[in-house]
């Protein structure tokens, strides 16, 4: 699964650590999501959606191989 979390963070001008604190996870979790090593739970994706004020499918999307 690909994502635009890093881009959305840049738009809000926040660090991985700041984003992690806002949604209640570790900075390492944010790093893993951004690098595509971890697929977030539905609850976590919804928290990100609320924070970015965008639908989930605007920052998470499937690759052809998924």
What order do the helices and strands come in, and which of them pair?
Elements: E1 2-3, H1 5-12, H2 16-23, H3 27-34, H4 42-52, E2 60-61
Helix pairs in contact: 2-3
Could you characterize what this model shows?
The protein is mostly helical and 66 residues long. It has helices spanning 5-12, 16-23, 27-34, 42-52; strands at 2-3, 60-61. It has a two-stranded antiparallel sheet with strand order 1-2.
Low-confidence stretches: none
Helix-and-strand structural type:
mainly alpha
Shape descriptor: globular
Question: What is the H/E order?
Answer: EHHHHE
Q: Share of helix among residues? A: 40-55%
Provide the residue-averaged pLDDT.
Answer: 94
Can you list the strand order of the major beta sheet? 1-2
Kindly report the name of the CATH homologous superfamily: lambda repressor-like DNA-binding domains
CATH architecture field: Orthogonal Bundle
Query: How can the largest sheet be summarized?
Result: 2 strands, antiparallel
In short:
This protein is mainly alpha-helical and 66 residues long.
């Amino acid at each position: 699964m690909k994502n635009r979390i890093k881009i959305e963070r840049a738009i809000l001008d926040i660090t991985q650590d700041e984003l992690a604190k806002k949604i209640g996870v570790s900075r390492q979790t944010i790093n893993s999501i951004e690098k595509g090593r971890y697929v977030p739970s539905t609850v976590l994706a919804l928290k990100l959606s609320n924070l970015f004020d965008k639908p989930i499918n605007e920052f998470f999307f499937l690759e052809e191989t998924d």
